Amino acid sequence: MKKLTLLSEVLQYNQKFTEEKLYESFSTTKFPDKKMVIFTCMDTRLIELLHKAMNLKNGDAKVVKNAGAILTHPFGSIMRSLLVAVYQLQADEVCVIGHHDCGMSALNSQQMIEDMKERGITQETLDTVIHSGIDLDQWLQGFDSVEESVTHSVEMIRNHPLMVKDVPIHGLVIDPETGKLDLVIDGYEHTK
N or C: which end of the chain has fewer CB atoms below 10 A? Predict the structure, then answer.
């Protein structure tokens, strides 16, 4: 008997999902109904909680995620996704949403490098990455304050040379236990 893997479990459920047309209740378009794009953390606690806490349903907003909702490069994939949402997918507002108790607040780059080595990444590979110009300590760095991190991401987006100035860029922090949202930056105060 073949062992049931996570992938086979997903595919088995998906077959039932499509055969029974359960997807019909999620039908929408590629354009966000509330004309919003959210940049948030990939934390598992936020998958449904964030949407419920913001009264969002499928199709209401574009959602872009990474570890910590940290915008690290002005011309990386996160910023490109936000620009696509604004210029091509009719998003008129951006919400950067961090959360309390984020794993990125406790990230220790040296520990992560040690974890990489324990799982088979060689020092030679690490040296190659370092010699290519990547500062692993900085690249793997987390943050001390979620509010400061959200503010940093909001400022990078707002001040991006390709971001239109009349799009409000809001900053919020969510409690991953209760869903309470705390306002860090009201983007309406900064639009021109």
Answer: N
